[in-house]
Write a structure and sequence with these properties.
The chain has 559 residues and is an alpha/beta fold. It has 22 helices and 16 strands.
């Protein structure tokens, strides 16, 4: 699509809007999930001819079909663009760098690792290299950073995806990340408004609630979101999260209205009171926190009427529902065009409306080797400076490389979870010449029995690798993993060194741990830094991004 670049940008956007059909305008508000259905180019073309879209989301299936290679992904995106009349926004969850989405790019440690470094310059670089590598892979928009404040240790959403529990630190680091992204041609997205991290439930499974009072909310989540708005964040993602002080409405079944459906939250609070003028993109419309509130036809129209601009993965009947609503006057053309205008303005900011051929943004390119080198270096620096020694009461650390020659590596990991980083930890230890015996989960008596049989190791590492963002409603050593917690306390001749590769809150489940290292991220650079820190080759420079000092008061109740 070519726009007349001799015009003022606002004029060219208005002309573009007026040239669109009603269905094309509606399509601009739709983000299509590129999944396995669309691997066939003809299928994709037929779909986009009937259901035009303004943006696409690249997740697991399409990336898997591209074999994790940026060049292959760019070609698939070029096909989607060739089948589209207008330039596409391409979004993805690049919360920990472009390598989270595409295997041939750099994976950074999670945001909680970054928060443990407490370095705003590093946060800016985190955003910068996410943007530069993300653009090489074909993205121009990331649903990141997570700016939720972890106020409840039981919350299963924020965990290591966020920046901790201090609102001022979260705001400062998030703002730096956003500026790093947007200074380098990317659209950032602050999520999840009005703030996750309070409820102990998962909004994928239920409408969760931010139960803070108005005064508390402004001090915590409101302050963070206001800060990133003031620093120019271009997009915000509302979550399926209720905010009772702002919108007390409940359905006939008593279900609170989530922000994604709430005009008081999105329009009156976020837009009018807080002054946000950018694009609002819903969280996924398949989540139970959204679908459980009303019938499909009602909730889709309500979500748009509430103030959202982009609908993340709506059903195809969204088009006909919107067309009928506009014909009947339930949704105004002016309201639709206001969203299209914001979306096109974002595309203009990213330079997407200036190209003679929109598909050129996905043309084959050579990777910038210097960008790659700097991104890899940044990943290592974040890892090196984030490893946190929470407790060392028995002075077990650092390990003496001359004396610690054998290790029992006891992993606590869900049966179906990815164990590659436990594998990598074992391999890294073995590469140092250590004899590593691996034991996964098991019975509470296992370690004691091994001791009774006369077995002994120089070091006993208990490594928790819990599942994050897996709709489990908990990021804790529960179920079979609880037996690992039991087993390590039953050990009599060996003293456990406990390591967490994700959650920072193991001491809330077991306040009596004597030795604990928080590594925050299952990531290659973190595993390397962790092993060097264990052996005293790297200082434990990380500072806990969450408060762990209130354990006596909080042990035994829900937080």
């Amino acid at each position: 699509m070519i726009t007349d670049t001799t015009q003022h940008p606002a004029d060219s956007i208005e002309n573009l809007i007026q040239s669109m059909s009603l269905r094309e305008k509606i399509g601009q508000t739709v983000q299509l999930g590129l999944n396995s259905r669309f691997c066939n180019e003809e299928t994709l073309e037929r779909h986009l001819e009937e259901f035009p879209v303004g943006s696409v989301f690249c997740g697991g299936e399409i990336i898997t079909s591209a074999e994790g290679k940026s060049a292959a992904l760019r070609e698939k995106l070029a096909r989607a663009q060739r089948a589209s009349k207008y330039p596409l926004l391409v979004a993805g969850d690049l919360e920990s760098g472009a390598g989270q989405a595409v295997a041939d790019k750099t994976r950074f440690p999670m945001l909680l690792s970054l928060a443990a470094c407490r370095d705003e310059k590093m946060a800016y670089e985190y955003g910068k290299y996410t943007a530069l590598e993300g653009r090489e892979a074909g993205f121009n928009w990331t649903f990141a950073p997570v700016v939720d404040v972890q106020k409840n240790w039981l919350n299963p959403i924020v965990t290591n995806r966020g920046l901790g529990d201090d609102p001022q630190r979260v705001a400062a680091l998030a703002g730096a990340i956003i500026e790093g992204m947007q200074d380098h041609g990317f659209a950032a997205c602050a999520k999840h408004f009005p703030g996750d991290g309070v409820d102990f439930r998962d909004q994928h499974l239920i409408t969760s609630v931010n139960s803070l009072t108005e005064e508390e909310w402004w001090e915590v989540h409101g302050g963070v979101f206001q800060s990133v708005i003031d620093r120019g964040v271009r997009t915000i993602m509302p979550g399926h999260i209720a905010l009772p002080w702002c919108d007390s409405f409940r359905s006939s079944s008593g279900r609170p209205r989530p922000a994604t459906l709430s005009e008081p939250i999105l329009t009156q609070l976020l837009r009018e009171r807080m002054g946000f003028e950018g694009v609002l993109v819903t969280d996924a419309l398949i989540m139970a926190g959204f679908v459980g509130f009303a019938s499909r036809s009602e909730r889709l129209l309500q979500a748009f009427a509430a103030g959202n601009d982009v609908m993340l993965w709506p059903e195809n009947d969204y088009y006909s529902l919107m067309e009928r609503a506009i014909e009947e006057g339930r949704v105004s053309t002016e309201r639709l065009e206001a969203s299209v205008r914001r979306i096109l303005t974002l595309k203009q900011q990213l330079g997407l409306l200036d190209a003679a051929d929109a598909a050129e943004q996905f043309a084959p390119i050579e990777e910038d080797s210097e960008v790659r080198r700097q991104a890899v270096d940044l990943s290592a620096r974040v890892a090196d400076e984030s490893i946190t020694l929470v407790r060392n009461r028995e002075n077990l650390l650092p390990l003496n490389s001359d004396r610690a020659r054998s290790v029992l590596l006891h992993s606590a990991i869900p049966e179906q979870a990815d164990s590659r980083y436990i594998d990598l930890l074992a391999e890294t230890l073995e590469a140092r010449g250590l004899e590593v015996t691996r034991h996964k989960n098991g019975n509470c008596l296992d370690v004691n029995k091994m001791e009774q049989e006369g077995k002994h190791w120089d070091a006993y590492l208990v490594v928790y690798s819990l599942q994050i963002h897996q709709m489990k409603n908990a990021v804790r050593p529960v179920g079979e993993l609880g037996e690992v917690q039991w087993a390590q306390q039953y050990a009599e001749t060996m003293k456990p060194i406990t390591i967490s590769l994700n959650t920072a809150y193991l001491t809330f489940d077991n306040p009596y741990l004597d030795t604990l290292v928080n590594a925050y991220s299952p990531c290659p650079t973190v595993i390397d830094a962790l092993v060097r820190a264990l052996f005293g080759e790297l200082p434990f420079d990380g500072q806990s991004p969450v408060d762990l000092e209130t354990i006596p008061e909080r042990t035994g109740f829900l937080g």
